[in-house]
Write a structure and sequence with these properties.
The structure holds 2 protein chains of 2 kinds. Chain A contains 4 helices and 5 strands. Chain A is an alpha+beta fold. In chain A, strand 4 and strand 5 form a beta hairpin. Chain A has a 3-stranded antiparallel sheet with strand order 2-5-4. Chain A has a two-stranded parallel sheet with strand order 1-3. Chain B is an alpha+beta fold. The two termini of chain B are about 50 Å apart. Chain B is built from 26 helices and 23 strands. In chain B, about 55% of the residues lie in helices and about 15% in strands. In chain B, the strands form 3 sheets. A 6-stranded mixed beta barrel of chain B has the order 4-5-10-7-9-8. Chain B has a 6-stranded mixed beta barrel with strand order 15-16-21-18-20-19. Chain B has a 4-stranded antiparallel sheet with strand order 14-22-13-23. In chain B, strand 19 and strand 20 form a beta hairpin. Classes of the chains: A alpha+beta, B alpha+beta.
């Protein structure tokens, strides 16, 4: 099983996507990304928290303290209206990017 | 526990968030069967560098927080502003009164501060003006006197605490042009005069030592800046060309700086002084400027100069008994009464501004009272007290900004009007302008005003609880607020101060204009007619002047024509000393100081001065034989104090100047003449025939009947007929001379009067406002009283009584303040003491009557309250 480090900027997109399911705390977000990618994508804590705080600064997510499922006090993040819009536009960009990369890869295979 | 705020909260949150993450990891590992201690170790290892991540998060958080705070603040300001604007718009009448009131105060303050700055505060245009003094002689009798050429040179040589001296003297002269000649003022100055003042010539250079030697007149000249601009169109190539002055051709070596015109008005051409140590020490005619050593006080410098002068008095008999005195540059060039007046006017303007603030404060307080309900509800709903206070202040600021802007704009209109009013007599008034610096003063005063009038209502908000605010709004009757009563009293008080000040200046002005100058200003014209040395020799001046006067006298409509060296009340004079021959004093000090004039026949008649005894001058006088003179009545009374001052002097002999001086014979006694200044005692006057002392610069007085303009034109033609080389004179009404002499007192009075009027309006508005408001607040009470059978008269006096208290308290404060400050005006007053009873009675009557009227209207309204309407209203 290979593990892939996340590309710059992709982490934001993944965090926003993860939060569409409702408020989550940092550990949950990291776990959700790992589980959803079937353990392929590893989120570094060193990158996760600064990314969350940057999203908060930008006004895409909102933070509030709450109790986790393990009854621990944790900071929960949820999408704001601005965050939803950002996610929508970034998803489109991402899809276009992936499609373009895929087309290039297919073309090369055909040529060889 | 108090919630943490700021950086401390960020530190704690970030740490807690990271700790939560690690604990969740530990929980998962423990669930997978790892030992708790081992799980903790693994989790921390997997998390990475906790400190670095935490630091990064904290930095982002801090940035976010800063951004939020700024945003919140902007939001709050925007909300307060829109709230204030809504409140202002909701009550446009209130806003209009506030804005107008404030604009009045701001306009007054702005224009007066710009005047004060240019007239008083702006340093004189020379280097280190504090070192510059005017050095004068004091006669043995103790009177101010000009300086002789030898005295000036001796001072320059012997005075120890002076860096140097400069001297100047002016002479009327004629500037010959290509087509026509004009009158010009020639100024003799010593070499280095401009350097002494520390001002540079505009072009070329000033006179060299070599050009300023006794008995060695060089044909060089400097043009005054104004002459250069007007006559030479600021031609930069003028240096090196020539100018013809009094028939002699002079090389222009330089152009004087504009600063010189600012210091002394009306100079045209500068020529070297060539001061001569051997000249007659009794010929005093120089104005001397000295520059003291750095750090030397005027007292020390004065002592030095007095010592030098007294030493000279021991050497030269002409200087025996003479002394010296210094006058500061400000006093000489600006005048202490001008300075004083400018400060008085600023205080007046500030008082208007203060009254405006008081008025607005009062209005806002009154409104706050009616709106306590609204504020109470807002407070009860959880609005912070601080927020409410801030809203009140924001509203004050919005109103102040509008009022300030209108006031500043109005100042741009008012200032030129004020300048036109006083241009003739107030030095540097024309230089006053409204620029950034002045507008800054305006801005500060507006901000100060906003704080002042926002404070009182805000303070009340602070004190009252929501419950009190709500209750007071529901209350049927309310006591008149002590604060507002005090404010209106203060206003009445300030108004009294302004009224008393204006009254004193007005009375003083009336006294001044009531002074009988001896001559009759109506029905006469003046014309400057100079027969300068270079062109008209000493011997031809007398006959030529007589010929011109004859020609003028022949014009139909001209009743009398005569000439004098002194244009009445232009501030010039000629002085000397005399004594009775039969009572000749031993010492020069005991000679009587006099003003003398070389006048032509017809002068007394043209001026309408009565000859009390003896006879007037005739053409024969002064051409040969003994010198006949006429003396003024006051001089006659002094010299013949023990006899009949009207008859006894006729035929008596007087000694001129000093015991060895020439002898003159009194042929007549004339009514007193005041042609030097109005605010002095009638001077001792002596008149000699012009034919015998043919003075060059003369003023012709023409008494006429009929069309002034037509006669003026004929006078000009008459002068041209006699000598086409003479400058054609401009004619002016003699009344103009009087008008100029009282221009500054008139200026002071008009301006302070304007402020007093504005102040009175403000006080009336204030008093009317508070009374009317009271009546409206007491409608219920009044209604009940009326329904219980109270007489309208009783209701009215109940309301008036309250107002009377305000006026009485304010009046008392005002009278005290006016009494304390009126002596400050003393130096501006003429023949009126600050305690002038008429002024005080008038001021008190004015305030009592206007205040009475202001309270009467609402009081009358109170008697018309309809009980049924009022009692069923709520």
């Amino acid at each position: 099983m290979t593990r892939i480090d996340l590309l710059q900027g992709t982490l934001d997109l993944l965090i926003l996507r993860t939060l569409t399911g409702g408020p989550r705390h940092g550990y949950q977000i990291a776990r959700a990304i790992r589980t959803a990618s079937e353990d392929v994508l590893q989120v570094e804590e060193g990158a996760l928290y600064p990314a969350l705080h940057r999203l908060e600064d930008r006004g895409w997510v909102m933070a509030s303290w709450g109790l986790s499922e393990k009854k621990r006090r944790a900071k929960f993040y949820e999408l704001t209206a601005n965050g939803r819009e950002a996610l929508a536009s970034q998803s489109q960009t991402w899809d276009a990017y992936v499609a373009a990369v895929a087309r290039v890869m297919d073309a090369e295979e055909a040529a060889s | 526990m108090r919630p943490l705020d700021g950086p401390a909260r960020i530190d704690r949150d970030v740490a807690a968030e990271i700790e939560a993450h690690i604990e969740h990891m530990v929980d998962d590992l423990v669930d997978q069967g790892v030992h708790p201690e081992e799980a903790r170790r693994q989790a921390e290892a997997r998390f990475g560098d906790i400190n670095r991540i935490a630091a990064e998060c904290r930095a982002i958080q801090r940035k976010t927080m800063k951004k939020r705070r700024m945003g919140d603040m902007l939001d709050a300001v925007r909300q307060d502003l829109s709230f204030a604007v809504r409140r202002v718009l909701r009550n446009p009448a209130f806003a209009a009164v506030v804005v107008f009131t404030l604009a009045m105060g701001v306009a007054a303050t702005t224009s007066v501060s710009s005047i004060l700055r240019s007239v008083v505060l702006e340093p004189l245009p020379m280097a280190d003006p504090d070192q510059i003094v005017i050095a004068e002689n004091l006669t043995p009798q103790g009177e101010h006197f000009s300086v002789s050429e030898p005295m000036f040179l001796d001072w320059s040589e012997r005075a120890r605490v002076f860096q140097g001296f400069g001297a100047l003297a002016t002479r009327a002269s004629v500037l010959q042009g290509t087509t026509e000649s004009v009158n010009a003022t020639k100024v003799y100055v010593n070499a280095g005069f401009f350097a002494l003042l520390g001002i540079e010539p505009e072009l070329g250079r000033e006179f060299l030592q070599d050009e300023d030697r006794p008995g060695d007149r060089r044909a060089v000249a400097m043009l005054a800046h104004s002459l250069w601009v007007e006559r030479y169109a600021s031609d930069p190539g003028v240096v090196g060309t020539t100018v013809t002055l009094d028939q002699s051709t002079l090389e222009i070596v330089g152009v004087a700086p504009a600063e010189m015109d600012e210091l002394l008005d009306g100079l045209d051409v500068f020529v070297p002084l060539n001061a001569d140590p051997d000249m007659d020490r009794g010929e005093h005619y120089l104005t001397v400027v000295g520059r003291m050593n750095p750090g030397t006080t005027m007292t020390d410098a004065s002592a030095d100069l007095v010592a030098v002068t007294e030493e000279l008095g021991r050497t030269y008999s002409e200087d025996a008994g003479w002394s010296a005195q210094l006058v500061s540059a400000e006093e000489f060039f600006i005048g202490s009464s001008t300075t004083q007046a400018a400060w008085v006017l600023l205080v007046g303007a500030l008082m208007v501004l203060l009254m405006a603030c008081v008025n607005i404060s009062n209005l806002m307080l009154a409104r706050a009272t009616t709106q306590h309900g609204e504020m109470g509800i807002r407070a009860a709903l959880g609005a912070h007290r601080r927020r409410l206070v801030r809203q009140v202040f924001t509203e004050s600021l919005v109103l102040a900004a509008i009022g300030g802007a209108i006031g500043a704009a109005a100042a741009f209109v008012i200032l030129p009007m004020v300048q036109a009013l006083g241009a003739a007599q107030v030095p540097r008034l024309d230089k006053a302008s409204i620029d950034g610096g002045i507008l800054l003063v305006t801005l500060v005063s507006v901000a100060g005003a906003a704080v002042l009038f926002g404070m009182t209502p805000a303070l009340r908000l602070r004190e009252d609880s929501p419950a009190a605010l709500l209750n007071s709004a529901r209350g049927a009757t309310r006591r008149r607020s002590f604060g507002r009563t005090l404010l209106v009293s203060a206003q009445v008080g300030l108004s009294v101060v302004l009224l008393v000040g204006t009254g004193l200046l007005m009375r003083s002005f009336m006294e001044l204009t009531a002074v009988d100058p001896g001559f009759e200003p109506r029905g006469a014209m003046t014309a400057q007619l100079d027969l300068p040395d270079g062109t008209y020799d000493y011997t031809v001046r007398g006959p030529l002047m007589q010929e011109i006067l004859d020609e003028i006298g022949a014009i139909p409509g001209v009743v009398h024509a005569g000439a004098t060296p002194i244009s009445p009340l232009k501030g010039n004079s000629l002085a000397n000393f005399i004594a009775r021959e039969d009572r000749m004093p031993d010492r020069a000090e005991e000679f009587t100081g006099i003003y003398w004039r070389a006048v032509t026949p017809g002068f007394f008649e043209a001026m309408d001065l009565d000859v009390r005894s003896g006879r007037s001058l005739t053409r024969a006088d002064g051409t040969e034989g003994p010198i006949p003179v006429l003396i003024g009545e006051s001089l006659a009374r002094r010299l013949w104090a023990d006899g009949d001052p009207i008859r006894d002097p006729i035929g008596e002999t007087l000694v001129w100047g000093d015991p060895d001086g020439s002898r003159v014979t009194v042929i007549g006694v004339v009514e007193d003449l005041q042609d030097v200044a109005l605010d002095i005692d009638p001077p001792y006057m002596l008149y000699r025939p012009h034919a015998q002392v043919p003075w060059a610069a003369m003023t012709v007085i023409v008494r006429y009947e009929g069309d002034a303009a037509g006669i003026a034109e004929q006078v000009r033609q008459a002068v041209r007929r006699v000598d086409p080389g003479l400058p054609v004179p401009e004619l002016e009404s003699l009344e103009e001379n009087v008008r100029r002499a009282v221009a500054q007192p008139r200026f002071n009075m008009t301006l302070l009067g304007g402020f007093a009027f504005a102040g009175l309006i403000l006080a009336v508005v204030g008093l009317y406002g508070i009374t009317a408001f009271d009546v409206s607040q007491r409608f219920r009470e009044i209604g009940i009283r009326i329904s219980l059978g109270a007489e309208p008269g009783r209701i009215r006096s109940m309301i008036l009584r309250d107002s009377l208290v305000v006026v009485a308290v304010g009046g008392a404060i005002g009278l005290f303040l006016a009494w304390a400050s009126s002596r400050w005006l003393e130096s501006l007053l003429f023949q009126v003491t600050p305690a002038d009873p008429a002024t005080w009675v008038a001021a008190v009557t004015t305030i009592a009557l206007t205040a009475g009227a202001a309270a009467w209207i609402p009081a009358r309204r109170a008697t018309r309250v309809d009980p049924t309407t009022v009692l069923t209203a709520e």
